[in-house]
Amino acid sequence: MNNKKLVQEITAMDVDFAQWYTDVVKKAELIGYTSVKGCVIIRPYGYAIWENMQGDLDRRFKETGHENLYMPMLIPESLLKKEADHVDGFAPECAWVTVGGQEELAERLCIRPTSEVLFCEHFRDVVQSYRDLPKLYNQWANIMRWEKTTRPFLRSREFLWQEGHTVHETEQEARNETLQMLECYRDFYRDTLAIPVVWGRKTDKEKFAGAVESYTVEPMMHNGVGLQGGTSHYFGDGFARAFDIKFAGRDNTIQYPHQTSWGVTTRMIGAVIMVHGDDSGLRLPPRVAPVQAVVIPVMQHKEGVLEAATALQDTLKSAGVRVKLDDRDQSPGWKYAQHEMQGVPLRIELGPRDIESGNCVVARRDTGEKTVVPLEGIADYIAALLDTVQEDMYQRAVENLQTKTYTATTYQELLDIAENKPGFIRAMWCNDAVCEDKIKDDTGGVKSRCIPFDQEQVAEGCVVCGKPAVNMVVWGKQY
User: Fold this and answer.
1) Co-location of 216 and 320 in the same domain
2) Which DSSP helix (H) or strand (E) runs through 239?
3) Which has the least CB within 10 A, 102, 120, 275, 378?
4) Together in a domain, 363 and 443
């Protein structure tokens, strides 16, 4: 009875996707709410998912030569204002500290919405010569942006992220860095999160404030809505000039370096939930799951059951599987439901009859398939099955992306798709922001997701105005 009720407490995706999402993040024990609107507690299970993401990405960053550091969280207002486009872009979201202790501050301090200006101030001090370049830095930190509409993980006022900041001798080096880190994000989404992305360049209207060019990876959620999954920006020498960062070049002339910035956030947890989840809760890809396999002793009061379950746990742990033995005083059905809700990729059931026959029962969270498996060689079987689950989850996400990506060759066709078929829309564009704005206004929020690297001439003219098209753009609504 408890088992049935536990699953029923989650609203069906097809009934109310937004409520389904809220139910999942609460009931799977990912977050808790606080008395400050827009700020949540990331509970241990949710934070464990973030730690796995962080560990994987941190390894990738260090393999490409990047070092971690930490910047202050407070930015003087005068420093923030040094780059005009940058400050204008973030002004509506800034939170300010005006009092320290019991004294009013002489200058307001912004709680960092991003750290470009802090890095620039530091680069000005440590870059003097071409011999000092490049600087390849990354920061794991928290950020504050005063969002009006909030949703856990997707858009909150305080969130966790990483922000890479690098400074280079030449434009080409900086551009190579920008695309290298975007590719790093694409590979991480594919290989670790089992999520395919559309990747490409942002339009000028959608690019990062102060950037010359912004690039993005864009996953699609189960319901066809997009999410800005991660961005990488080429700054040129604009920030360097604004902050007077100079270096002596190889020819002894004074030059301005070229900079980049790139980042992903805890929004990735929201992406995993909405790409892979179902009506019973989470379905976590094995490579990011805090627990990859849970061992459930059946009739654990019987002699020898707990001992056999513990031995099985030890065997799997020795093989590198993130495994948990659930020996709580609850019925097996209650445990099945909870671990199903929390998206544990594999469940292993072990009872007296299984022990007698030398077998166990392995259930896949992604498909529900149950298989009787010999205990002998179980570690190799589980390791191989986890790889299979990871790949199968990726392929289902690919199918969802492909199925919900449409092509529009006329404006009426675009409007019809936007109204009736949630998903991405491929359509030609003349590069005029007027046409970009018209699509957003006429469709109630369909925006350019990116100008994909994988270009295709799907029509001759712009889908809006009919003038000669410059790029094929992927359009869609976003969280």
Assistant:
1) no
2) helix 238-242
3) 102
4) no
AA identity, residue 294: V
Residue 43 is part of a domain; what is its CATH number? 3.30.930.10
**Residue where one domain finishes, among candidates 371, 392, 413:** 392
Tell me, what's the pLDDT at 8?
A: 55
* Helix ranges restricted to H, 300-406: 305-318, 332-341, 352-357, 378-403
> Are 330 and 412 within one domain?
no
Q: Are residues 50 and 29 in the same domain?
A: yes
Provide block-wise average pLDDT over 10 residues at a time, the chain (479 residues): 55 95 96 93 98 98 98 94 75 92 96 95 97 98 92 94 98 98 98 98 95 98 97 97 97 98 98 97 98 96 94 97 96 94 98 96 97 97 98 98 98 98 98 98 97 96 97 97
Residues 6+ apart with CB under 8 A from 129: 247, 248
Residue with tokens 């393999």: 63
Q: Does residue 383 share a domain with residue 409?
A: no
Reading the block at residue 116, the tokens are: 């470009």
- For 165-214, give the DSSP string: EEEESSHHHHHHHHHHHHHHHHHHHHHTS---EEEEEPPTTTSPTT-SEE
State the pLDDT at residue 460.
Answer: 93
- CA-closest candidate to residue 448, choices 461, 467, 435: 435
Contact at 8 Å (CB) between 185 and 230?
yes
Q: Is 263 helix (H, G, I), strand (E, B) or coil?
A: strand
Sign of the C-alpha dihedral, residues 152, 157, 159, 164?
A: positive
- Residue closest to 454 by CA, chosen among 142, 164, 197, 184: 197
Handedness of CA 394, 397, 402, 403 (dihedral sign): positive
Full residue range of the structural domain in which residue 419 is found: 405-476
Same structural domain, 128 and 95: yes
Q: Which two tokens stand for residue 15?
A: 């009934």
